[in-house]
Write a structure and sequence with these properties.
Helices cover 28% and strands 27% of the residues. It is an alpha/beta fold. It is elongated, with a radius of gyration of 23 Å. The N terminus is likely disordered. Bound molecules: flavin-adenine dinucleotide.
Length: 388
């Protein structure tokens, strides 16, 4: 877990970090990748997130019966740069040999058998958040000079102060938060969902043209329910319910079901994560969690035949879950202003899209800064004396 520290004042930051200072808002996949890449390139990076830890939608929810990946269920690794990054932390993610992902109808009959997936399904181990915890650790544990991680820090405004960027934030948990400021940044990266980035830019009176582009992006909500059946796992007994571990569904409420206990390095208590489909989630977005749980448990029973009462049931609402309409470019960067935007929604709705977006933004920032330095060096060079 990264250190949670009180953001430093502008004076301390400037004194402690002579190199270019970057604030990255959002510690999901895109933010962590962007921050790591910049830190490796020699920038002084501070990563902020409003949650209690890093991970964003690649998060893990604890329960007395074992953990749940209640956001991203698995991810694929097609870009060689993603594969290379994964190889640096081999124990933080493993292949999940989820057997065939079938599409089931309302009553659990197979509509389409998709066969063995061509891409491996990867999951963080022992939980989905483990991968980003491992990647963010060097930023927060002092092993990279100048890098810091601040969790429970919700950025509410970005403004200019003495020619550099300052962040206003609510620090601490929601009940005991206090307003603080961190200043002295040359660049600010917004690695947060498009709606939140748009709201933050708007509230900060920044980049009206970007605000318009972000308004075109559409991200669907998703109600997720986590179920545990502690009495179902008895030594020597077969699984409760179906013999498959993962299925999509055309049920009017549910689109996805996965047996959490089938993932590598997980506790063995029978646990399922159910995702409602985007239409149903949008229609019921303001329903009480108890009502959503009851409806989704009923639908789950219809599809799987599991009618036992779960020993644990919890709903989580993701307001910004999966991109329906993407931005169409990997990131936005205004190098002159020192502002950048990244996130999965730039390219699509997958973890790998977030990786590529964060990486491409960082590489573009480094390239622009290198070009500036080369230009400055050229200008500083004394002109050659003309030949006599
Ligand atoms: C239910 C669900 C299922 C999914 N299933 C899959 C799947 O099976 N496979 C797959 O590849 N992908 C899946 N995804 C998508 C995947 O999780 C995302 O593509 C990826 O995690 C997005 O990373 P990100 O960095 O772009 O954003 P996020 O992970 O959302 O990170 C943004 C971070 O910004 C923080 N933040 C926001 N506002 C502020 C603020 N003002 N101040 C400070 N911090 C702030 C948030 O707390 C968050 O940590 C799923 C997502 C959900 C929700």
């Amino acid at each position: 877990m990264p250190r949670a520290k009180t953001p430093s004042s502008s004076a301390t930051r400037a004194a402690a970090a002579p190199q270019s200072c970057v604030a990255v808002i959002g510690a999901g996949m895109s933010g962590v990748v962007c921050a790591r890449t910049l830190a490796q390139a020699g920038y002084s990076v501070t990563l902020f997130d409003k949650s209690r830890g890093v991970g964003g939608r690649m998060s893990t929810r604890h329960s007395p019966f074992g953990d749940f990946d209640h956001g991203a269920q698995y991810f694929t690794v097609r870009d060689p740069r993603f594969a290379q990054a994964m190889a640096t932390t081999p124990s933080a993610a493993k292949r999940w040999s989820a057997n065939t992902v079938n599409v089931l109808d309302d009553t659990g009959h197979v509509l389409a058998a998709t066969g063995k997936p061509s891409d491996s399904h990867w999951v963080g181990t022992p939980g989905m958040s483990s991968l980003l915890k491992a990647w963010a650790a060097p930023l927060g544990d002092g092993s990279i000079t100048g890098a810091q991680v601040h969790v429970q820090s919700r950025i509410t405004r970005v403004s200019k102060q003495d020619g550099q960027w300052a962040l206003t934030m609510e620090v601490g948990d929601t009940e005991h938060s206090q307003t603080e400021q961190a200043a002295g940044f040359d660049h600010v990266v917004f690695a947060i969902p498009s709606d939140q980035a748009q709201a933050l830019l708007q509230g900060s009176n920044l980049m009206p043209a970007w605000q318009q582009r972000l308004a075109q992006v559409i991200v669907d909500p998703c109600w997720t329910v986590m179920l545990a059946y502690p009495n179902a796992s008895q030594p020597g007994l077969p699984h409760l319910g179906p013999q498959w571990n993962v299925a999509r569904s055309t049920h009017h409420r549910i689109s996805w079901m996965a047996r959490e206990s089938s993932k590598p390095a997980r506790a063995s208590v029978e646990r399922w994560t159910i995702q409602a489909n985007p239409e149903w989630s949008a229609e019921h977005v303001n329903d009480a969690p108890e009502r959503v749980t009851a409806k989704l448990v009923k639908a789950f029973a219809e599809v799987t035949g599991i009618r036992a009462e779960p020993g644990h049931a919890q709903a989580h609402r993701w307001l910004y879950a999966q991109t329906r309409v993407a931005l169409g470019s990997s990131h936005l960067l205004d190098a002159r202003q020192g502002l950048g935007v990244c996130g999965d929604w730039c390219l699509g709705n997958r973890v790998e899209n977030a990786f590529v977006s964060g990486l491409e933004l960082a590489l573009a920032m480094v390239a622009k800064d290198n070009a500036k330095t080369t230009q400055a060096a050229k200008l500083a060079k004394p002109a050659k004396a003309p030949k006599a």
